[in-house]
Amino acid sequence: MAKFGFSLSAIFLLVLISAISAQDTPRHESELLNFAANPFYSSQEIPPPAIPELEFTGFERDFGYYLVQFNVPLDNSVREKVIEIAKETPLGAQSFGYIPDNAIVYRLSKKYLDEIRALPEVRWLGPLEPQFRIRHVLFDENPRPDEDGRIKVNVKLFSGEDIQALIEKLDVIKPEVVESGSARLHEFILFSLEPQSVREFAILVANHEATQWAERRMPKYPNNDWSRWINQSYSTSGMGSVGSGWYAQMTADATKTPIHIRGIYGEGQLVGSSDTGVDTTSIYFCDPGVAVPKINF
């Protein structure tokens, strides 16, 4: 028994040391490309996609969208060096989103790839494959529809790309275009479609060369009836679930809401809420120039 306890302690210590070591590694020394769907190391082959329909067969046009991972800390001079080399790219060479660790998505002409790979600051260059352009939940069987019986999907195209070209490609499915427009770094379209068409839709969108990202627009519902239980007693017993309907039970045992039973309902008060669960590898929060705070034990 003592040996078993020692083994567990040793394993825990090794895991702890590994976690600390990983945090100590500067991002520009990391080979990880941290996609939620299929992360991989740039020193290895890109893993195969989850479904064969997303296998990358190359860009049909003279240009495409590529990941460039750098081996130095990122700053504007490093980013611009790639753009300067490829400035004659159709639609214009441009940098888009940041991908952890230390990679940038670019629009690049194929004829400049070898020159960019040869830069001393570049660790790796490879295509932004279809599997990295879409939220994989769209391939789930029997997706649960919104209250209107349909499913809405947001699609972002890289800036300068033709929205109508994608709409024409999707004509076999005939999704409804709810709205479309342009932003600084992308074009956007909101589609509405029948649940049985979502998988085919997702495959076509992911393989469309101009697609930057696609994901479902989830319906928004007020959850005050859930949050009052959790905030006041952290008890979810008997609360109901999404599985039993979009809404939780509307009545609560008084013991579950101790603040309310004391006559405190918050009238005239301003309430703020914060969440400590920030994903430091998210492209929306990650700053390659700032180290992630270390774990405080």
Key descriptive features of the protein:
alpha+beta; 3 domains; Alpha-Beta Plaits; four-stranded antiparallel sheet; disordered N terminus; 22% helix; 297 residues
The average pLDDT value, as a whole number, equals 83
What's the total count of β strands?
A: 10
**Number of self-contained structural domains:** 3
What is the element string, with H for helices and E for strands?
Answer: HEEEHEEHEEHEEHEH
Folded structure, characterized:
By secondary structure, this protein is α+β, with helices and mostly antiparallel strands. It has six helices and ten strands, in the order H-E-E-E-H-E-E-H-E-E-H-E-E-H-E-H. The protein has three domains: 32-132, Alpha-Beta Plaits; 136-216, ACT-like. Chain A, domain 2 (Alpha-Beta Plaits); 224-262, no CATH class. Strand 8 and strand 9 (186-193) form a beta hairpin. The relative contact order is 0.12. Mean pLDDT is 83; it is low at 1-6, 11-23 and 245-249.
Give a nutshell description of this structure.
With 297 residues, the protein is an alpha+beta fold.
Structural topology:
Blueprint: H1 2-24, E1 32-33, E2 40-41, E3 63-70, H2 76-85, E4 94-99, E5 103-109, H3 113-117, E6 122-127, E7 151-158, H4 163-169, E8 176-182, E9 186-193, H5 198-206, E10 211-216, H6 224-233
Antiparallel strand pairs: 1-2, 3-5, 3-6, 4-5, 7-9, 7-10, 8-9
